[in-house]
Q: What sequence folds into this?
């Protein structure tokens, strides 16, 4: 698996031992509110299951998902990854960041690095994301990285038994 270094953080694969810092930083209602795949409360058991899944997925010759932990001083403070990977074609980018690291430019840089990884190493032609329409911060991260708004998808997601609109963004190589 790939390790990508920046001045502020390291993007690396999840490993055994990440469970506590993952659980500590992701277990937040404000993170849960804007994501589909992250439960609340986020328990150590859920963290172990996720890390095991990521380790197993990274061993595959053609993984459908590549998840990078955002590591600052050995702590998992966020994550960014590509999923629904279709070889040499497209993938969806997703990400989250622990609240104490919001508004520091970390996620904008992490998305840039993983977008470049997708285009240059995986030979993708299209990377896309859909964000909840009320999640302005996530939309800004994509816009700062040159992702273009393709449209608004009405009642696209169901979250806590409510229909939620999503914004579809993409970037083409």
A:
């Amino acid at each position: 698996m790939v390790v990508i270094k920046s001045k502020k953080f390291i993007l690396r694969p999840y490993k055994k031992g990440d469970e506590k810092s993952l659980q500590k930083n992701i277990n937040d209602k404000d993170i849960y509110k804007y994501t589909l795949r992250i439960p609340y409360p986020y328990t150590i058991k859920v963290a172990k299951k996720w890390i095991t899944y990521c380790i197993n997925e990274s061993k595959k010759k053609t993984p459908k998902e590549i998840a990078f932990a955002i590591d600052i001083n050995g702590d998992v403070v966020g994550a960014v990854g590509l999923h629904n990977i279709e070889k040499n074609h497209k993938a969806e980018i997703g990400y989250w960041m622990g609240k104490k690291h919001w508004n520091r430019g970390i996620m904008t840089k992490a998305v840039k690095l993983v977008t470049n990884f997708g285009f240059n190493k995986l030979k993708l032609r299209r990377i896309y994301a859909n964000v909840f329409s009320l999640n302005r911060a996530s939309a800004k991260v994509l816009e700062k990285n040159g992702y273009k708004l393709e449209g608004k998808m009405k009642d696209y997601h169901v979250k806590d038994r409510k229909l939620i609109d999503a914004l579809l963004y993409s970037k083409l190589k």
